[in-house]
């Protein structure tokens, strides 16, 4: 039996089993997700996440659901990936890019303590042109009756906090 080091983390209730593929090679992630995600006979979780090297970003996230299917993206999981990358010294900066099946996602970490990291997930789409982005911001401004200040634009990104119990 092969021993695979793993980390179990959860973000707002989504709990995944994380593997550091910078150090460990996972041969059959689909089968591994099914076996380990079982809450009665495995570790238990919503699936597994592989944290891998990337040629286009700081890291690559591959996510496999508990049925073995590969998911494109999970916002709760990617924030945990950001914390893992920083905590384990894989990245030392607080602005991180992560490659996923739904494109490159960007995280901004605010280090509060060793056990609490605030993580902004910035969802960027390559197909979102500057003109379309400006229209969306203008619509938001009119709907919320707020002016388009830099602070208000920054508040449009999702702000989450990962805490370790």
Structural class: alpha+beta
> Count of helices?
4
Average pLDDT, to the nearest integer? 79
The biggest beta sheet reads: 9 strands, mixed
Shape: globular
In whole angstroms, the N-to-C terminal distance is: 31 Å
**What assembly state would you assign to the polypeptide chains in this entry?**
single chain
Poorly predicted regions: 124-128, 152-165
Helix proportion range? 25-40%
* Series of secondary-structure elements, N-terminal to C-terminal: EEHEEEHEEEHHE
> Rg, please?
18 Å
Count of individual beta strands: 9
| Amount of beta strand | 25-35%
Task: Explain the overall architecture.
This protein is of the alpha+beta class. Helix content is about 25%, strand content about 35%. The protein has 4 helices and 9 strands; from the N terminus they run ββαβββαβββααβ. Strands 1, 2, 3, 4, 5, 6, 7, 8 and 9 form a 9-stranded mixed sheet that branches. Mean pLDDT is about 80; it is low at about 125-130 and about 150-165.
Set down the secondary structure blueprint.
Blueprint: E1 7-11, E2 14-20, H1 29-37, E3 47-52, E4 59-65, E5 70-71, H2 75-87, E6 95-100, E7 103-113, E8 116-122, H3 130-144, H4 150-154, E9 158-163
Parallel strand pairs: 2-3, 4-6
Antiparallel strand pairs: 1-2, 3-4, 4-5, 6-7, 7-8, 8-9
């Amino acid at each position: 039996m092969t021993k695979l080091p793993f980390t179990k983390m959860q973000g707002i209730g989504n709990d995944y089993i994380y593997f550091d593929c910078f150090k460990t090679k996972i041969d059959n992630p689909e089968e591994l997700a099914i076996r380990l995600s079982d809450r009665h006979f495995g570790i238990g979780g919503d699936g597994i996440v592989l944290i891998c090297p990337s040629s286009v970003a700081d890291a690559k996230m591959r996510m496999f659901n508990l049925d073995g299917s590969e998911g494109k993206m999970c916002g709760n999981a990617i924030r945990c990936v950001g914390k893992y990358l920083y905590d384990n010294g894989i990245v030392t900066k607080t602005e991180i890019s992560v490659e996923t099946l739904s494109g490159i996602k960007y995280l901004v970490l605010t280090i509060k303590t060793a056990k609490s990291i605030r993580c902004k997930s910035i969802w960027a789409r390559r197909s979102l042109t500057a003109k379309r982005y400006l229209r969306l911001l203008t619509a938001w401004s009119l709907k919320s009756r707020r002016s388009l200040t830099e602070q208000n634009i920054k508040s449009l990104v999702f702000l989450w906090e990962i805490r370790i119990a």
